[in-house]
C-alpha cells in the first residue's frame, strides 16, 4: 500500500514523500533522485523491491527540495550541504529506527555522500547498504559532455554562467510548450544508444516541474563537491556502483573512483547506456539494489540471532 506524506523541514520547505512496503520490514530503503528529476525515476526499482514478498523492505522515495511536488527552495539553500541535512531529517521522521539502504542517482548519490560527511555518526549507526548510480564524488572533474576537452571547457563555462542566470529567475518553471524543443538535446545529453519514448517522456515531464531556481541554483554545489575521502572512511558497508559507458555527465572514471574508495563495492559498467540508468537499464539497477537489500536483510537476521543468544546466555 502506498502512503503519500509531506515532511516540513526546519526552514519551512515541504518535501513530498511516498512510502510503501511493510511497516515491520527489517530494512528500509531510501531512494534519492537526480538534479531536475523527481521520485518517479525509481518506479521500476520500487516495483522490483515489492516483488521480494516476505523479504520486501519498506521503501521511501521523496522529491528533493525545489523538485517534483516538493515546495521551492531559496537560492541560498540550493546546495548539497542542505540536501545532506534534508536526508538526515527524512530519516529521523520517516525511518527513525532500524537499518537503512540508501540509493542515489546522480545528484541523489552526491546527497548520500554529503549526509555521510555531515552526519557521520548517524550514517555509521544506520546505513547497511549503498547503491550509487550514475554519480560522482569529484564534482565536474571528469565531465566532458562526450566532447573533446577544449570544447568541453567552453561548454562548461557557458553552462556555469547560464546556471547563474537561471538561479536568479525564481520559482518559474519551463513552459510545457518549450519541452518538446528540449527533447533532442536532453536525449543526446542524458541517454545512450537506446531511449524508450516512455523514459524520455518521464524525463521531460520531470524537468518541466523543476523551477528555474533549482535548475540553475544547484549547479555550483554539484560542480565543487569532493567526497572521495568521505567514501574511503565509510568502512565495510556493502555497496554497488553502476555507470553507463555512454554517460556524458558522470563518465566511467567517476564510478571507478567511487568503487576504488569503497572497500566492498561492486562496479558495473552498462554498455551503450547513458546517464539515466534507472530508466535505461532498470533491470540491471534493480538487480543490484535487490542484492544489496538481501545482504542487509541477512546481516539484520544475524544481528538479531546474536542479540537473542546474548540475552539467553
UniProtKB/TrEMBL annotation:
Where are the coiled-coil regions? none
**SUPFAM superfamilies with a match to the protein in the record:** alpha/beta-Hydrolases
Q: Does the keyword Glycoprotein apply?
A: no
rRNA-binding as a keyword of this entry, yes or no, is no
Show where the AB hydrolase-1 domain sits: 29-288
- One Pfam match, by short name? Abhydrolase_6
The alphabetized UniProt keywords are: Hydrolase, Oxidoreductase, Peroxidase
Among the GO molecular function terms of this UniProt record, one is: hydrolase activity
Its name, as the record gives it, is: Alpha/beta hydrolase
Organism in which the protein naturally occurs = Actinoplanes cyaneus
Instruction: Specify the taxonomic lineage.
Output: Bacteria, Bacillati, Actinomycetota, Actinomycetes, Micromonosporales
